[in-house]
């Protein structure tokens, strides 16, 4: 009997390895710098009088506020259960299982491939080039049966912004052919402007955003998919009927108040200053990747040993060694000033021992 579920499982999923989220990986320690969260908590009020009713499909005030924040009109976005739901929704809406494909550009965020696989959609890997930039010619040479091209900017976990000229080239070449999904989960930390102001030019542009990173709301699961109305309308047909729970909408609306936007901008500036400081210190010790996100990737002599040494100091980081070209690379999320001070000295101690 015990193998019933295994026997019933969709055959194509038999060797699926689930996404190793920071929370699933777990770990012992009191300093959590492995999931690119913003460490600062904000206060929110909840009104429970509406919890007995189904929520709005797309809470109007939430949509209006995020549209204003992002500089789009309110027909050009869809609120989702995190940006992750946006990724899956795009695949479910546009890709025919066992027929269509998506392109991803590794090393990059892991959920594009997991969502494709769980929906029986093949993934074509077109690795980033030597400068960790999207390989436009490589993408264009591999467009057979491809409906979606996922590009992450700033890229997780390397930290690079994708050059606007390359994104433009891609969008232009694929204008009548495929959607280019630019994942801007970390755009608030970057100095490079969003590609959202290109929506008028490109019917095939889709942008993913989230409240999980800069807004310090990973726990509420709220993200946004932004695109021209024609794309949003198709996605709205496929998404669940109540994708934004009432408490999520209430918190997200408060998060998008003018006061909170100012607080977030100040936190981002502070985190970016800590990032610069951390990167400068690490550059004296080892290879450090430039970063436009709230995280920094660096290479160590032995990633497992370093992870263990850090865990012993109570600090949980993220080993990226399994990613293409990132052997012995570790990603650290920028935490509070105190967390960064402890992390920096623990890493300095590790390098003293290791080298
Ligand atoms: C964290 C992250 C997401 C997912 O964000 P959620 O809104 O929490 O689902 C999407 N893309 C990238 C690149 C991320 O790092």
Q: Give the strand line-up of the largest sheet.
A: 2-8-7-6-5-3-4
Radius of gyration: 21 Å
The shape is globular
- Biggest beta sheet attributes: 7 strands, mixed
Instruction: Return residue spans where pLDDT drops below 50 for at least 5 consecutive residues.
Output: none
- The number of distinct helices, counting runs of at least 4 residues, comes to 12
Structural class: alpha/beta
Mean pLDDT: 95
Order of helices and strands: HHEHEHEHEHEHEEEHHHEHEEEH
At the fourth level of CATH, the homologous superfamily of the largest domain is Type I PLP-dependent aspartate aminotransferase-like (Major domain)
> What is the assembly state of the chains in this entry?
single chain
Which CATH architecture of the largest domain?
Answer: 3-Layer(aba) Sandwich
First and last CA, distance = 54 Å
The amount of helix comes to 25-40%
Number of domains: 2
**What is the CATH T-level topology of the largest domain?**
Aspartate Aminotransferase, domain 2
Which ions, cofactors or small ligands are bound in this entry? pyridoxal-5'-phosphate
What is the C-level CATH assignment of the largest domain? Answer: Alpha Beta
Q: How much of the residues is beta strand, in percent?
A: 5-15%
* β-strand number: 12
């Amino acid at each position: 009997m015990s193998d019933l579920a295994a026997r019933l499982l969709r055959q194509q999923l038999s060797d699926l390895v689930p996404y190793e989220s920071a929370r699933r990986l777990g770990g012992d320690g009191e300093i959590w710098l492995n999931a690119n969260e913003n460490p600062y908590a904000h206060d929110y009020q909840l009104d429970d009088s509406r919890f007995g009713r189904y929520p709005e499909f797309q809470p109007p005030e939430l949509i209006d506020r995020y549209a204003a924040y992002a500089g789009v009109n309110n027909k050009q976005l869809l609120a989702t259960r995190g940006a992750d739901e946006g990724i899956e929704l795009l695949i479910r809406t546009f890709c025919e299982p066992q027929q269509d494909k998506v392109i991803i550009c590794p090393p990059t965020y892991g959920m594009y491939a997991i969502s494709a696989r769980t929906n029986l959609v093949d993934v074509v890997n077109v690795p980033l080039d030597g400068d960790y930039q999207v390989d436009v010619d490589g993408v264009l040479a591999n467009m057979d049966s491809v409906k979606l091209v996922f590009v992450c900017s700033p890229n997780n976990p390397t930290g690079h912004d994708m050059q606007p000229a390359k994104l433009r080239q891609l969008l232009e070449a694929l204008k009548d052919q495929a959607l280019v999904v630019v994942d801007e989960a970390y755009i608030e930390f970057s100095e490079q402007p969003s590609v959202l102001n290109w929506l008028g030019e490109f019917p095939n542009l889709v942008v993913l955003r989230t409240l999980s990173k800069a807004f310090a709301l990973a726990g509420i699961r709220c993200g946004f998919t932004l695109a021209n109305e024609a794309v949003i309308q198709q996605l709205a047909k496929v998404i669940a009927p109540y994708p934004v729970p009432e408490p999520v909408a209430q918190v997200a609306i408060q998060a998008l108040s003018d006061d909170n936007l100012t607080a977030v901008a100040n936190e981002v500036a502070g985190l970016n200053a800590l990032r610069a400081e951390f990167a400068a210190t690490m550059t004296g010790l080892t290879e450090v990747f430039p970063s436009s996100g709230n995280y920094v990737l660096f290479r160590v002599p032995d990633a497992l040993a370093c992870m263990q040494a850090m865990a012993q100091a109570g600090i949980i980081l993220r080993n990226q060694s399994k990613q293409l070209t990132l052997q012995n690379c570790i990603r650290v999320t920028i935490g509070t000033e105190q967390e960064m001070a402890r992390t920096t000295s623990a890493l300095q101690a590790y390098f003293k021992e290791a080298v």
